[in-house]
Amino acid sequence: MEPYDVFVRWERGEPYEEAVSVDAADPEMALTLAKANIDLRRDPVSVKVAPQSAVTETTETEPAISPTTDREYRKVQWYAENKVEVND
Amino acid sequence: MSLDAIDADARAEVVTFLFGIADDEFLTGQALTEWLAVAPTMEEDNALSEIAQDELGHARMWYELLEDDAAENADTLEAVGLPAADVDLDGLAIGRPPEARRNSLLVEADRGDFEVAVAINYLYDEAEARLLDALAAGDVDEIADRAAQAASEESFHREHAERWLDRLATTEEGQERLAAALESVLPRAADYFAFDDAVAAALEDQGVLATSLDDLEADWQEAVRERLAGLPIEVDTSALEGDSLPSLMQSTPQNGRAGDHTEDLTDLLARAYPDDAVDHGIPRAVQP
C-alpha cells in the first residue's frame, strides 16, 4: 500500500495537471480509485498514476537552475537590433 | 413525456418492469450510502459514494419517467397496486411499502461486510449491464435514452467491482470470506430476471427489450460462471447451470419481482428512514 501521484490531461494539447494523490496497493487499483477521486469537470483526455516512490523531484534548497548570465545572443530579435559586421 | 409508444393493454406490465429497475437502483444506492465514512480507505469511501450517487441518480431518472407516465395514465398505477394519490417522486421512491417493491432480492441483502458488498456489486453490475444494453437497443425512445445514460456510468461500477473481486481473492482470509459471500448472495440473484411471463412477453412484443430476458439471463449466468471459475476460490456455481431459476431458487424460493421480499428490505428501509427522524411530511414505507 503506497501513495500514487495522479496527473490529469483535461484537453488535447494541454499539459498534464497534478491532481490528488491516492493510496493504493497496486497501479491498476490506483487508476481506478483516481477516477473516483479527482475533481471531475468533464471527461479527461487522460489520467496517469505513478507511485510517489518512482518520482524524483527538486527540493526548495536546490541551487537556482535558470541562466543568470546574458543569453541575448540566442534571440533572433537581438540580431535585428544589433547589426553584425561580416568580414569577407 | 410518457410511454406513449406502449399499447394500452401492455402498459401495466411495462410499468411493473420499470418499477423493478427503479427499485433496484434506489435500494442499491441506499445500501451503498451506508459505507459513507466507514470504507476501508478514504479513496474507497469516495469511490463507493460516487457509485451510490450514480445509482440514486439512475433511480430518480426511472421514477421520474414513472411519475410522468402516471400523471397521464392513472389507471396504470392502479393496475400495479398503487393508489393514484401516491404519485409524486418522493412517494414513489420513499413512500412505497416493502410488499409494493419490485426489486431483486439481491439488492436488499445487508452489505455491511466489504466482501459481501463486492460480491453483490459484481453480480448486480453484470446483470444490470446486460439489461441496460438490451433496453438501450430497444424501440421505446423514452426508455432507451435513459438506459444508455445509466449504462455509461455503470462501466466504472463494473470496473470497481471487478478489481476488488481479484484483489480480495489474493489472501487466504479474502478467499474464504469472498467464497462465503458469493455462496450466500448467489441464490438471491436468482430472481433478477424472473419477471413473470406476461411482463416478459410484453417487453418483447412492445420492443422495450432488444433481447429476451431468458437470453440475457443465460448470458449473465455464463459470464458469472466463467469469472468465478477464474478466481482462486471454491464457489458452488452448479446452481447457475441448466434450468436456472428453479435450481437457484431452491434455497430461497422467493421472487422479489413479484413483491415477495425478505426482512432485509424492511430493515434497509427502516435504516434509511428511521422512526425517530424529523417529520418532514414524506410518507413512510415502514410505519413507526
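qc> The radius of gyration of chain B is 18 Å.
qc> done
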